[in-house]
Amino acid sequence: MAERLNIEQLRKFAPGNAILAFSPPSTGSPMQDWCTHLGNNPLRRRELEEFAILGDVVVRIADELEPEPIDRVRIMSLEYAVRVLGNEEDGREFVRCVKAIASPDAGQFEYEQIAAYYYREIRTRNISEVLKEMGLLGMQLEAVTATNSDREISFEEFERAEQKLTVADQRRVKEAAKTRKPLPARTPIFDDEMKAVLSRVGRQKAGRMIYDDLATFYLEDGDKSLDEIDRDFLTFENIDQYDENGIIGLTMNGGQRVVVVFDLDCEVDASCLPHEARHLASEVGRLFVGRAMGGNTTQNARRMIAESWADQTRSAIPVSSWNEPSTSPFSDQEFEEWLSLSLDRIYNRKVVRSARRLFTFSKGPAVELVMDQEVNPDFEEMQYAASVLRLLWRRQYSDFHLRSLRHEAYQELYLAIRGTSDTADVAELKKRAYADFKEAKKLSLKEFTALNTVAKSQEVRLRDRFTQAATQWLRKIEKSSSGGLRFLKFSLYNDPEAKALTRQEKQRLWDAVRTRETELKAKAGTYPARQQQSVQSQPASHRRHVQLVVSA
Asked: Whose CA is closest to 59, among 240, 297, 340, 257?
């Protein structure tokens, strides 16, 4: 997509776009163009010097054994943090919090920006206050990016015994072996052909070795010193690579690799549009999915097309085009009609310009006439906006989720799952999705898997939702005694207010009940030992003796 985007028009109509930072101009002087480009983008100087442009991607040359991005940041070292904060414990906490705040795939630049920001905050505020703020933010971000394996506190490994077949399973295996299909018949003609081909290929030998003058010059030792041999070997191993224009190049050897850091193809968005047409980018997404998510946007767009058609044909507008809700997404033809009408409404300025025309008659000289002509001065900008919007429209077909939202069953279930506030409703919708996939055949396997993933993410979202009524129940459980806990357990089953709680709230309350029971049992286990110890420690004068006298 990015190769069909006119960079010169992008520079003219959207000068602040990030793509232009990695698209230096070409005036015929590569060094002058590069220096001018660095001067025009001072905030991206480091990225431009570290990265290189290869066609439509921006890459970085990485060594096979290069250190981690955090190890390359000097201000993130423990020595620097201790020197700035004045305390080793605070320095360790600062480094740990920065690691927690940064994303798992953060680069060197991101670590430097985060550390520099909080160093500046520490110089103006209290250290403990800033570290507390960093710790809370780090815990929230780690909860978002952590995997299930990272959240495991402990796990157990055990070996499963070899499973043996029962007598019935052995009988079924023997019956299946009897009805097994025989092996396919041999193909002697094909086998003979393969033997002949392999025999001819196996005897191939190199007639002569190609002599490489360049390798001989650089790799032979001769009278070279050790440093000269190392230098010539690296020179021979290096491979010069250039982009299509040949302006920016990079040098690699066998021990390096290329890491893609910026894909120009994926950066075409609403920021590439002129300011007047940027609101159309959001309408493109709603027109693509249509149905309930498209809402009034699809209906208004079809009404605009119908009004234009009625004006051209001088007929009445069909009632279905503006009175009934739109139930289907836009087609490519409808999108082209809507695009032309929308841009005509935005760029509707007309000016009159004088134009000279030469008319040649059958007999006589040519006659030059001056006539007025109505033109649109924003025609070039309108054509550029149309090309960007077409790119955004076509790119949506490559997104599986957006493409599936055009199906009615998928979109309906997706909106229902995202609109739930109880995990019990999420479970019912998962069963409904399975029925649509297995029985009604309304969903494909990929769509059902995607909806199942959406349901799991919705359950995680709802897990921390807690109402005021549930909070009051939780406080009662945490402060209850053994008898009060039995009463609360009975109330959780029978109280109308407790029944009205959501499933995730009930689950959390029952977890609190089990935790409280464990605490009370632990206290009850230590109480008799303390009581026995107190009785044994009483003095002899305070002990009571009971003497039994048996009468004759």
From this structure: 257
